[in-house]
Amino acid sequence: MPSIGDTEKALLQKGFKQSDTHHRYYYLYVDGKRTQVFTYMSHRPSGSDVYTPEVASMKRQMYFDSPNQFRAFVRCDISGTQYVDHLREKGILAEED
User: Fold this and answer.
1) How many Å apart are CA 47 and CA 3, to the nearest integer?
2) DSSP label at 96?
3) Which of 52, 54, 72, 85 yields a CA-CA distance of 20 to 30 A from 2?
4) Is residue 66 scored above 70 in pLDDT?
């Protein structure tokens, strides 16, 4: 399982910005504009693992087809540019987003 810290680092490196509320919300920004793509995690120490149900939720929120795609994103096997291209191919983001 990926850790909270590794997941947060990957999100922030690839265009997400954090908004602290009851949970840690992360919104994807493309070309300085906030998109509708978001995910969130509960507040826990950064060394804690992201639990399997959270991986499933984050996979769905981030429009990945499998948990393995999400894990590849966290491992940085998928770049921020590749992720945005993935969202455009799925029709989640328009070309100008």
Assistant:
1) 6
2) T
3) 85
4) yes
Q: Give me the pLDDT at residue 45, please.
A: 65
Q: 12 pLDDT band (50/70/90 cuts)?
A: very high
**Contact residues for 31 (Cβ-Cβ < 8 A; gap 6+):** 97
Residues of 22-54 as b/e, b for ≥16 C-beta within 10 angstroms? eebebbbebeeeebebebbbeeeeeeeebeeeb
Would you list the domain boundaries of the chain? 4-89
Cα–Cα distance for residue pair 91/45, rounded to 1 Å: 35
CA–CA gap between residue 92 and residue 78 (Å, rounded)? 17
pLDDT of residue 24: 85
